[in-house]
């Protein structure tokens, strides 16, 4: 509540905490506010267990006058990703708004009718895994973040870079990128979508690691015709050799694109998988360090349900588990992660 930081440790996080403290002061009597603050501090010092603190929060929302949105914000601004995840597990659906429960259920409606393609060990494509509602949600939330972030002088972490003349352009030429925590998306929905995708991929592939804790996401927006050069996604050097790295979970929405992959930069041959709107690609374990590239984005392939609902282009959200990796936010829009001060292999 007091000293929460986001992945970038930037001004945005401080402002968010100040806003939260103001909301809590407005919703609680002074004594109750002080008690909640003391609890939050004790929880961060490990003097109060996760389930005790979760109970306090749910109770504040049930009888104490704290709105469920504010109680969720207390969790979202808790510094450790693991603590946030455990708190969410403890509170379950108790802090969901009725409307959010309904819309989450809509999105999660089973069966999605998705198809699973196992492309290699630890490499799985879930075809049409995202429902139409989930695709629309991911697009609208990503663009809301991409646009608001671009106009925030302190953070400057949206899809667009502001030019000297006040106009905006995509921060990587024909591609725009954001680096966020999954919690930047509301209500834990992206994390839930990611966990569902990992479960579905593990059911189809015994070599897909099950232990994936979403800590970071990279959001890319490609104009039609844009590409992404051949690269590997950064990984903890200790895991690179063990071939047990948790999967990258990659959601595609909007225009279709060709994803090329191979197992070594030197390999003259590569394979291609076409990623369409709603598909999810996972690469982990023996395939975690594949060399990959977006070879092209197909104009005119926008599905009808998204036409006019998102900028014409391809949106890709990769959700990652970077463990104890530290992102160097000063390098944005480049993505640089290091482990124990050593820059990870495969940075883009
Ligand atoms: O857009 C894609 O499908 C891949 C994106 C990617 O490789 C990355 O963000 O590292
Ligand atoms: Fe990548």
TrEMBL record:
<dbReference type="Pfam" id="PF13532">
    <property type="entry name" value="2OG-FeII_Oxy_2"/>
</dbReference>
<feature type="binding site">
    <location>
        <position position="233"/>
    </location>
    <ligand>
        <name>Fe cation</name>
    </ligand>
</feature>
<comment type="similarity">
    <text>Belongs to the alkB family.</text>
</comment>
<dbReference type="InterPro" id="IPR004574">
    <property type="entry name" value="Alkb"/>
</dbReference>
<dbReference type="GO" id="GO:0005737">
    <property type="term" value="C:cytoplasm"/>
</dbReference>
<dbReference type="InterPro" id="IPR005123">
    <property type="entry name" value="Oxoglu/Fe-dep_dioxygenase_dom"/>
</dbReference>
<dbReference type="GO" id="GO:0035515">
    <property type="term" value="F:oxidative RNA demethylase activity"/>
</dbReference>
<keyword id="KW-0560">Oxidoreductase</keyword>
<dbReference type="GO" id="GO:0008198">
    <property type="term" value="F:ferrous iron binding"/>
</dbReference>
<feature type="binding site">
    <location>
        <position position="292"/>
    </location>
    <ligand>
        <name>Fe cation</name>
    </ligand>
</feature>
<dbReference type="InterPro" id="IPR037151">
    <property type="entry name" value="AlkB-like_sf"/>
</dbReference>
<dbReference type="InterPro" id="IPR027450">
    <property type="entry name" value="AlkB-like"/>
</dbReference>
<keyword id="KW-0479">Metal-binding</keyword>
<keyword id="KW-0408">Iron</keyword>
<dbReference type="GO" id="GO:0035513">
    <property type="term" value="P:oxidative RNA demethylation"/>
</dbReference>
<protein>
    <recommendedName>
        <fullName>Fe2OG dioxygenase domain-containing protein</fullName>
    </recommendedName>
</protein>
<dbReference type="GO" id="GO:0035516">
    <property type="term" value="F:broad specificity oxidative DNA demethylase activity"/>
</dbReference>
<feature type="domain" description="Fe2OG dioxygenase">
    <location>
        <begin position="213"/>
        <end position="323"/>
    </location>
</feature>
<feature type="binding site">
    <location>
        <position position="231"/>
    </location>
    <ligand>
        <name>Fe cation</name>
    </ligand>
</feature>
<keyword id="KW-0223">Dioxygenase</keyword>
């Amino acid at each position: 509540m007091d000293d929460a930081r986001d992945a970038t440790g930037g001004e945005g996080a401080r402002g968010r905490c100040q806003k939260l403290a103001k909301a809590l002061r407005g919703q609680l009597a002074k004594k109750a506010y002080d008690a909640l603050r003391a609890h939050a501090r004790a929880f961060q010092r490990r003097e109060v267990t996760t389930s005790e603190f979760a109970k306090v929060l749910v109770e504040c929302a049930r009888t104490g006058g704290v709105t469920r949105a504010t109680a969720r914000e207390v969790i979202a601004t808790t510094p450790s990703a693991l603590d946030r995840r455990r708190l969410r597990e403890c509170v379950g659906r108790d802090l969901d708004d009725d409307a959010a429960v309904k819309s989450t259920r809509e999105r999660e409606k089973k069966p999605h009718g998705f198809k699973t393609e196992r492309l290699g060990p630890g490499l799985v494509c879930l075809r049409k895994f995202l429902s139409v509602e989930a695709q629309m949600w991911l697009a609208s939330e990503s663009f809301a973040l991409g646009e608001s972030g671009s106009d925030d002088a302190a953070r400057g972490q949206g899809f667009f870079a502001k030019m000297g003349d006040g106009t905006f352009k995509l921060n990587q030429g024909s591609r725009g990128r954001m680096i966020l925590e999954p919690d930047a998306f509301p209500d834990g929905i992206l994390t839930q979508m990611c966990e569902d995708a990992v479960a579905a991929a593990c059911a189809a592939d015994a070599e897909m690691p099950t232990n994936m804790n979403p800590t970071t996401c990279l959001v890319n927006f490609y104009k039609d015709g844009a590409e992404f050069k051949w690269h590997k996604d950064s990984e903890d050097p200790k895991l690179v050799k063990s071939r047990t790295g948790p999967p990258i979970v990659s959601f595609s929405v909007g225009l279709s694109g060709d994803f090329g992959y191979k197992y070594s930069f030197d390999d003259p041959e590569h394979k291609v998988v076409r990623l369409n709107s709603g598909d999810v690609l996972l690469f982990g374990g023996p395939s975690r360090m594949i060399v990959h590239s977006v070879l092209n984005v197909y104009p005119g392939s926008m599905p009808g349900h998204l036409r006019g609902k998102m900028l014409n282009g391809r949106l890709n959200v990769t959700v990652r588990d970077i463990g104890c990796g530290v992102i160097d936010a000063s390098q944005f829009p480049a993505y640089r992660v290091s482990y124990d001060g050593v820059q990870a292999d495969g940075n883009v």
